[in-house]
Specification:
globular; mainly beta; 9-stranded antiparallel β-sheet; disordered N terminus; 9 strands; about 15% helix
Amino acid sequence: MKFNKAFPNKSFAAFIASLALLGGCANRGDQTASSDPVISPSVASSPIVESPAASPQTDHSAPTQGGQVVETGAYHLELVALPEASSTHLDLFLQTGDMHEAVEGATVIGQIQLPDGSQQEVSFEYDAEGKHYAALLPETASGEHKVVILTNINGEKVNGRFSFTK
């Protein structure tokens, strides 16, 4: 390879050529890349099987309510935190199956670590009309809140970790 005055440093030119070669490889169709974080690697690596009765939604880790999603086993947990003036309204969509059917009758507890490191626990109540569990966090602290959702569904423990910033 002959270098001219545009690239007086041969190692720099070789580096640029290597980047160009790597860039061409990055556009291959057999590679998958996404800028969206996927919390559940088991969902990302599972094959998707379509059935005639299945919903058109095939990415089960995608939020359906605009919240954060954790897929665990057969369950889809989605937490939506809605800051209010003197509190934060928390909605938990606990769903199962390909059609994301609401799970009723579960015991749902939220353990929240506040920005100052202190802990607070809230109980979620089922809202039959909205088909989700709701709780109110009576806290006004600004910063990152770490949330652990603990559920008991007919004796089966299903848990998820989330965070939100107020």
